[in-house]
Automatic annotation (TrEMBL):
Residues 115-124 have a biased composition (Polar residues). GO terms for molecular function: nucleic acid binding; zinc ion binding. It comes from Araneus ventricosus (Orbweaver spider). This is CCHC-type domain-containing protein. Residues 113-167 are annotated as: Disordered. Residues 131-157 have a biased composition (Low complexity). Residues 14-30, 33-49 form the CCHC-type domain.
Length: 167
């Protein structure tokens, strides 16, 4: 008997009250936020204001499938299922792969700019009379290159093919 492993990756759970991901309206501890304009205090039903996303501040509704926060949330869920890890672990993994356009990218860039001084493997340099204990500094910690997760965007999006494009 062969087990057909079907890894169905469900869509991110979005709270209908505060529009955040990962919990439902019934367990929400946030404030009522409009899914259309991201303002607090009213529902999106009668809202006619400019679209603004709660989660990524983009110019779309909070339930838009073009939302980068939604796509990232989906990626976290698929990573969690594929790698069989916990949600916080998957979120950390995805966030480390896709740097947010904010201070986290700057901090990474700053770390990368700190490069070791050009070490010259010149044996004659040891002949210099100045005693330098440079052996310990040569053993610098290598950069973390553990980000070799295969990004596979070919996740079957079942149920989202409701757009009938007819030309
Ligand atoms: Zn909520
Ligand atoms: Zn609104
Ligand atoms: Zn968004």
């Amino acid at each position: 008997m062969r087990l057909s492993v079907r890894t169905y990756i469900h869509n991110p759970l979005r709270c209908f009250k505060c529009q955040r991901f990962g919990h439902s309206k019934t367990s929400c501890r946030g404030t009522l936020t409009c899914a259309r304009c991201a303002e607090v205090g009213h529902e999106s039903t009668d809202c006619t204001r400019t679209e603004k996303c709660v989660n990524c501040k983009g110019e779309h509704t909070s339930f838009s499938r073009n939302c980068i926060a939604w796509k990232r949330e989906k990626e976290i869920i698929s990573t969690k299922i594929k790698k069989q890890i916990s949600y916080p672990e998957a979120r950390k993994l995805v966030n480390s792969q896709t740097p947010t356009p904010g201070n986290s990218y700057v901090s990474v860039a700053k770390k990368k700019s700190f490069s070791a001084p050009s070490v010259q493997n010149n044996p004659d340099a040891s002949a210099v009379t100045c005693p330098k204990p440079s052996d310990s500094s040569a053993k610098a910690s290598p950069p973390i290159t553990n980000l070799s997760l295969p990004s596979s965007p070919s996740v079957p999006l079942r149920g989202t093919s409701s757009i009938d494009v007819k030309f």
